[in-house]
Design brief:
heterodimer, A: 796 residues, alpha+beta, Aldehyde Oxidoreductase, domain 4, six-stranded mixed beta sheet, 19 helices, 23% strand, B: 292 residues, Uridine Diphospho-n-acetylenolpyruvylglucosamine Reductase, domain 2, Uridine Diphospho-n-acetylenolpyruvylglucosamine Reductase, domain 3, Enolase-like, domain 1, 3 domains, five-stranded antiparallel beta sheet, 14 strands, globular
């Protein structure tokens, strides 16, 4: 399957984004922009405690009929996000709490009023009688026997335990063994737009119309239909402009179900807009992993085996549709990363705690495993006295092994992994960096160089997800393509575009096939009534899947165009070809505009036996193999670390990636830059901490630090294009990669700077406080020569 | 995150504002630029019954020069100082501090008086103006009074303002040409409230020095005679004699019990000292970059 890439507007063109004209002028339409006549606002009464039995909810008499609790929710079922993996324990998540609350921020009652401020006033007057229970805030404690129970009937707090063992015993006699405890903090996703839902009844269509900021509208429809016991046809989901998703907007929230119930109950439009406090404390949590990791190796750096125990804090409930086990169970299958080695063991636990459910965040488990494995590899390199790039080159899968089935049976479709490392090294220039490091800085800061490499399985399909047994399995992806009577093109896709630039890139794909100008192509998405079914936008899948579907539909459409064109040219079908938007015959040619006009407006000019299918096609697509595309990259970073204050400055950042054939390299750059910013957040800033009673310690963006523009350097981005042999045009999914590698690369650079001081940071985020703590501890222990001030000991 | 209901008044005269505050009692709160108070209202951390918006009082926007000092009206904004619309007490002394406060959007609305009255220990004006020995003028039901910042700041988020009183002006002594002012802070990101602030006003000609360590969850620790931090004298090469142990002991005595925090505070002060000594330019150090 080799399609010709040509410049212009097709695949490969650096076309400016069509959607920017609207978005940059402030003309986007988000949930909060929607105004419906008579719309009322909802505020929720949320649990102030992490774990408590509900003894009573007292609603003041004058608020009756405007405040609703679980007792009012007739006919609403719990959210149940099951997994088919053996041993999985199901959590029942009532949309409003019934007997117990299991996390701070859990919904207890909803208050409806003409304005949000009035609804909040009402919420403040609802009194709760709660009996506090011991709260589980530490997943390792929660795993132990005798811990308090989040879900009593389970008997323990483990959603799921898994074990993969590939001959680990064979590695035990390796001459070098390096063990580290590594962890990543709980984070919040923090898209610029939070969640929001507006629901009204469309009596004409007998439909509940749910406007909600979702990256997976069709899945939300299935979830709502299950919880409300409505036919799917009775529900229409409209997801308008969405200001960033990152996985958070993949989830069916209790709030969505509540609002849908409420609109039916009141017969009036209702709205809930998530505020930042709700977002941070009650909903958008992700990422919290803990690893005990051992690497076995030869003295030359060759890996003999990896042994790992990984625990993921899954929070109180299993989130719909991805379940509570997506992270931990994936850890076991993807920890080996881009490396080839013979022995492997990984045990994982998905642990329930009294925190928000953990949700899939850009990179999902990959960011955690990349951090764990890549910082451990640097520890191994340090132990061996080898440069980190040497250890990696020893173990990376080689191009001649492609396609390659790794130790966990992941099927790498194509690529040259050592090459992205070599190119990144050329760009970052380790010799120069190490010379500077050796010379020392005049201001006392220390220079460090860090690398990390990852592979990103994207667009994994039926064969992968059917094994998980979660409520959603992607099958064929579909797209609709319709020629308008004047020769324009309408595309309909079930995925969403919340930063992916699909209005531009899918039009480019269509242009590649049909030659219709991108400006004359419209992409419709985000409405279950107007688009084919799709699991939506997640898992770095949209360009592979929806792009492939658009190409398939357009190819079929081009054949229909060709047939009508042949009629019009009075030529044999065999003698005409379709090229650049024209049907060309032996004695003349005819353009798409004219063909469309004839089909729609002058059918009398066509013969009676013309194909009645016309100029509208919906067609489906799957790659030749649906085990996923593997894009990959090397990130290399130079930092300056102040060991006395712990400040870290990113001096240089290099990314060399291979995302297969790039439909629009500028859009890919944008995806990488956004991911890099998030990865820097994971590395240095973002942490949702909890106290011992399970209270979240960041409730505003003053406490939950996100990197801003000054904290994100402009990286050098280099592209390689190794086509995937399995996908249309050879594209690969690249949506998450930018967020996967930075935490490991930055931590490795910091460790490179600080190792001579006896310091090694194995926990994200690497904060100034943690750096100084370790620097002082190392000095205290006499690990290194005394540096700078040592005043604190004498004062302490 | 919507505020609880409150009344709002927008007086045009200081006297009218004072009368409203006296009448409103504990439930009345002054709002100037609203950059801290606004979020507190929205988070319902503050639930006043009456908000007295003083931004309509023209008298609070004036700046006047006095012998050896400049008096800033309470409503002078950070951006006024940053951009030089309000005169500085010395070459780039306050403008440099102002430029490092939060973000430009905050600086456009946030005021010097509001910042001091809010009394966040990590705030730049609280620390920089304490280091420079500023006084504040207070208007209340019984007239006007002046108070040194050290007496005005009584705790984290707490001041000596009494019932019906409001801050109306800030008098900042001019920095003589012979003196240097070093100011450094440690923020995890640009625009964040500081985790440690250090300042040194030093005049080697006169042999005087005044040091400050701030953002310690309490009013800043001011060492009025800071010669003790430099072996008893501040002549040439004083920065090289910076006595980190003495600074750490002072912090310990001020209740900073955590050794890591102490270390960071001392090191931030060391940067301010180096800056004042001109040993390296502010631009070359990341923590002072935001204040530069």
């Amino acid at each position: 399957m080799k399609d010709v890439t040509q410049p212009g507007e097709g695949v490969g063109a650096r076309l400016p984004r069509k959607e920017d004209d609207r978005l940059m002028r402030g003309r986007g339409q988000y949930i909060a922009d929607i105004r419906l006549p008579g719309m009322q606002d909802v505020a929720f009464v949320r649990s102030p405690l992490a774990h408590a039995r509900i003894r009573g909810i007292h609603v003041p008499e004058d608020l009756k009929g405007r405040v609703f609790t679980a007792a009012d929710l007739d006919g609403v079922k719990n959210i149940r996000a099951v997994s088919g993996l053996p041993g999985f324990k199901v959590s029942e998540q009532p949309v409003l709490a019934t007997d117990k609350v299991r996390q701070v921020g859990e919904l207890i009652a909803m208050c409806v009023a003409p304005t949000r401020a009035e609804a909040e006033d009402m919420a403040a007057r609802v009194e709760l009688d709660l009996e506090e229970l011991p709260a589980l805030h530490d997943m390792l404690e929660a795993r132990k026997p005798g811990a308090a129970l989040v879900h009593e009937h389970w008997g323990d707090n483990v959603f799921l335990e898994s074990l993969v063992n590939v001959n680990i015993e064979a590695a035990f006699d390796a001459p070098v063994k390096v063990t580290r405890t590594i962890s990543t903090a709980r984070q919040c996703m923090a898209p610029i737009e939070g969640r929001g839902t507006v629901v009204h009844l469309d009596h004409r269509m007998d439909q509940l119309v749910v406007y909600t900021a979702s990256q997976m509208p069709h899945i939300v429809r299935s979830g709502l239909s299950e919880c409300l016991e409505l036919d799917e046809g009775q529900i229409r989901i409209i997801s308008p402009d969405v200001g960033g998703g990152f996985g958070y907007k993949a989830i069916l929230l209790s709030e969505d179900v509540c609002l849908a119930w409420l609109a039916r109950k009141l017969g009036a439009p209702v709205r809930w807009l998530e505020d930042r406090r709700e977002h941070l404390t009650a909903n958008a949590n992700c990422r919290e992993h803990h690893y005990e990791l051992t690497l076995y190796a030869e003295r030359d750096g060759t890996l003999r085996g990896i042994d790992c125990e990984a625990t993921v804090d899954s929070g109180a409930y299993s989130a719909y549709p991805f379940s509570a086990c997506l992270e931990a169970a994936q850890v076991a299958s993807i920890l080996p990363g881009p490396y080839d080695f013979p022995s492997y063991r990984c045990r994982t636990w998905s642990v329930a705690t009294n925190k928000c459910p953990i949700l899939p965040y850009r990179g999902v488990a990959r960011t955690g495993v990349c951090f764990a494995l890549e910082v451990a590899l640097d520890a191994l390199a340090a132990e061996l006295g080898l440069p980190p790039e040497v250890v990696r080159l020893k173990n990376l899968v080689r191009p001649e092994q492609m396609p390659f089935d790794n130790i966990t049976k992941k099927h790498f479709d194509s690529g040259d992994y050592p090459e992205v490392l070599k190119r990144a090294l050329i760009a970052i220039d380790p010799e120069k960096v190490r010379a500077r490091q050796k010379a020392g800085e005049p201001d006392g800061r220390r220079i460090g160089l860090g690398l990390s490499i990852y592979c990103e399985q994207g667009a994994h399909g039926t064969s992968v997800y059917s094994g998980w047994g979660i409520p959603m399995v992607p099958g064929h992806e579909q797209a609709g393509a319709r020629l308008t009577p004047d020769g324009g093109l309408e595309l309909r896709v079930g995925v969403h575009s919340h930063g992916q630039s699909l209005e531009t890139t899918l039009a480019q794909v269509a242009h590649e096939i049909l030659g219709i100008p991108v400006a004359r192509t419209r992409v419709f998405y985000g409405d279950t009534a107007m688009t084919p079914y799709s699991t939506g936008s997640w898992g770095s899948r949209v360009m592979v899947m929806a792009g492939g579907a658009v190409a398939t539909a357009c190819t079929e459409l081009s054949e229909r165009i060709r047939r009508i064109g042949a009629h019009m040219l009075q030529a044999d079908l065999a003698d005409v070809r379709f090229e650049n938007g024209r049907v060309i015959g032996p004695h003349g040619d005819v353009g798409v505009n004219e063909i469309a006009h004839t089909w729609y407006r002058r059918p009398q000019d066509l013969p009676a036996d013309v194909d009645g299918g016309g100029l509208e096609v919906t067609s489906g697509y799957k790659p030749l193999r649906d085990s996923g595309t593997f894009s990959y990259a090397t990130h290399a970073v130079v930092v300056a670390v102040d060991p006395e204050i712990g400040e870290v400055e990113l001096l240089d950042y290099v990314i060399v990636e291979d995302g297969g054939v790039l439909v629009n390299p500028m859009v890919v750059d944008g995806q990488i830059l956004g991911g890099l910013a998030q990865g820097i957040g994971t590395a240095l800033y973002e942490e949702m901490a909890f106290d011992s009673s399970g209270q979240p310690l960041a409730s505003t963006l003053a406490d939950y630090l996100l990197p801003g523009a000054p904290e994100v350097p402009a990286p050098f981005i280099g592209h390689m294009e190794t086509p995937s042999p399995y996908t249309r045009f050879g594209v690969k999914g690249i949506g998450e990669g930018g967020a996967i590698a930075p935490p490991a690369a930055i931590a490795n650079a910091i460790n490179d700077a600080l190792r001579p001081l006896g310091v090694e940071m194995m926990r994200s985020p690497v904060t100034p406080r943690r750096i100084v703590e370790q620097v002082l501890a190392a000095r205290e222990a006499g690990l290194v020569e005394k540096q700078g001030a040592s005043a604190n000991r004498s004062a302490a | 995150m919507k505020p609880a209901p409150f009344e709002i008044a927008r007086p045009r005269e200081i006297e009218a504002a004072v009368a409203l505050l006296a009448e409103g009692g504990d439930g009345a709160k002054v709002m100037a630029g609203g950059q801290s108070f606004g979020p507190m209202l929205n988070l319902r951390l503050a639930q006043p019954s009456l908000v007295v918006d003083i931004t309509g009082i023209a008298a609070l926007k004036s700046v006047r020069e006095e012998e050896g000092a400049i008096v800033y009206g309470a409503l002078v904004t950070h951006a006024d100082v940053e951009d030089g619309r309000a005169p500085d007490v010395g070459a780039h002394v306050l403008s440099r501090v102002a430029a490092g406060i939060a973000y430009r959007a905050v600086r456009n609305r946030g005021t010097m008086g509001g910042s001091l009255a809010h009394a966040d220990p990590a705030a730049d004006w609280v620390n920089a103006l304490s280091a420079l020995g500023a006084d504040v003028e207070i208007a209340g039901p019984s007239g006007r009074r002046w108070l040194g910042l050290g007496d005005f700041l009584t705790g984290a988020l707490s001041t000596a303002l009494g019932a019906g009183e409001m801050l109306v002006a800030v008098r900042v002594p001019k920095v003589p040409a012979s003196a240097r002012f070093g100011y450094a802070k440690h923020c995890r990101k640009v625009g964040e409230f500081a985790h440690a602030t250090g300042a040194l006003l030093v005049d080697p000609q006169k042999g005087t020095a005044r040091a400050l360590m701030g953002a310690i969850d309490a009013p800043p620790l001011v060492i009025a005679d800071a010669r003790e931090l430099f072996g008893g004298r501040v002549d040439a090469g004083f920065a090289g004699r910076f006595d980190a142990t003495a600074a750490a002991i002072a912090l310990f005595d001020a209740g900073v019990s955590d050794p890591v925090e102490r270390h960071i505070h001392v090191e931030v002060l060391r940067r301010a000292v180096r800056q004042a000594d001109g040993l390296f330019s502010p631009q070359s150090s990341p923590s002072s970059r935001s204040a530069a």
